[in-house]
Design brief:
mainly beta, 1 helix, 4% helix, Pnp Oxidase, Chain A
């Protein structure tokens, strides 16, 4: 807040505790990225305008894909099963809810993706001399992002 006093009882939220709800199931993820929205810019200048520059106006809104990363567990192929539902020009679309949680586990900020569907899955890399956890990545396209404060 520029120019104002900060309330000493209000603190920024840490980002390490969150939950993701897909198809009514809570799924544990290591990382979520890509919660962004942008408005495309339309530049316009009328032929009789006395200005020697264009006017910038907001155009169509565009939503980026969301990337989710999680550890690979035995007998957990839900991403691959979801990806296999894609047929020629058709895919079941589902809402996807991402909640930022406070220290008590209560949602404080909620992002909801409308009509989400998987566009890409990346399996883990395999190394004979590594000791990291196997992590897979799913990229999800969607048709809208809404944000709500709980």
């Amino acid at each position: 807040m520029a120019g104002g006093a900060q309330d000493p009882s209000v603190w920024p939220l840490p980002k390490f505790q969150f939950s993701v709800n897909m198809n009514g199931q809570t799924v544990s993820f290591q990382e979520v990225t890509g919660l962004d929205i942008e408005a495309q810019i339309i530049e316009y200048r009328a032929g009789d305008s006395p200005e020697w520059s264009t006017v910038k106006m907001p155009g169509i809104r565009k939503f980026g894909n969301v990337t989710l990363k999680k550890g690979i567990f035995v007998h957990d192929n839900r991403f691959w099963a979801w990806f296999d539902t894609i047929k020629m020009n058709t895919v079941p679309r589902t809402p996807l809810t991402i909640s930022l949680l406070d220290q008590t586990g209560k949602a404080t900020m909620v992002w909801t993706l409308a009509n989400a569907w998987p566009t890409k899955i990346t399996g883990t890399d395999l190394k004979a001399d590594g000791n990291e956890v196997a992590v897979e990545t799913i990229e999800v396209a969607h048709e809208g992002l809404t944000i709500a404060n709980a």
